[in-house]
Design goal:
Layout: H1 3-23, H2 31-50, H3 60-66, H4 69-75, E1 95-99, E2 105-108, E3 112-113, E4 121-122, E5 130-135, E6 142-147, E7 153-159, E8 169-173, E9 178-182
Antiparallel strand pairs: 1-2, 1-9, 3-4, 4-8, 5-6, 6-7, 7-8
Helix pairs in contact: 1-2
The structure holds zinc ion.
Zinc ion binds near residues 99 and 147.
């Protein structure tokens, strides 16, 4: 989708959300969910407006030269690290998790939660930083998540598992795909 189309869609969705907030105060949605959704669209819109989404395009050969074999297997070949082995599985410091491959900030530590699944879990990504794709591999239907900027594989997103988070989503991300930087 071109930039202008995405921006147009963002504007339309933003208007619908604003209208619903004004005229439909008795919506079934919990006020926090409505607020989160509203804040999301606002931030997406701001991002598209400022055009600060950079894209990093490299050939697979270039990625192979830049990344370690393990990073290449996960980020470029959609591999999965063994559960419970990742550097950030039980990591709860304050800061930002960026893409190992291209350095784009993807997740804030404030959205990380303990899921017990064996991989780092986040209930939300930095707006626009992560893109979802349908994944029908392994005889399952799942939603893959990739870094928007470089297309690097991060993991999968699962919804409706009942975690007590604002989105009820779990971004299950390989530690190898992430690079943490603390607040300093
Ligand atoms: Zn990236």
């Amino acid at each position: 989708m071109t930039f202008d189309k995405r921006m147009l869609i963002a504007v339309i969705i933003n208007r619908i959300v604003v209208r619903n907030l004004r005229h439909n105060p008795l919506s079934n949605q919990h006020p926090i969910q409505t607020f989160v959704a509203f804040r999301h669209f606002q931030q997406h819109f701001a991002l598209y407006q400022s055009r600060n989404m950079t894209s990093v395009e490299r050939s697979e050969e270039e990625w192979r030269a830049i990344l370690s074999p393990q990073q290449f297997r996960i980020l470029r070949e959609k591999g999965t690290e063994a559960p419970g082995t990742g550097e950030y599985d039980k990591h709860y410091e304050r800061g930002v998790y960026s893409c190992t491959a291209c350095g784009t900030p993807l997740y804030e530590s404030t959205t990380k939660f303990k899921s017990g699944c064996g991989w780092p879990a986040f209930f939300d990504a930095i707006p626009g930083a992560v893109t979802r794709r349908e994944d029908k591999s392994m005889f399952m239907s799942r939603t893959e998540i990739v870094c928007t900027a470089c297309g690097g594989h991060l993991g999968h997103v699962f919804k409706g598992e009942g975690f007590q988070t604002p989105t009820d989503e779990r971004h299950c991300v390989n530690s190898i795909s992430l690079k943490f930087k603390d607040e300093q």
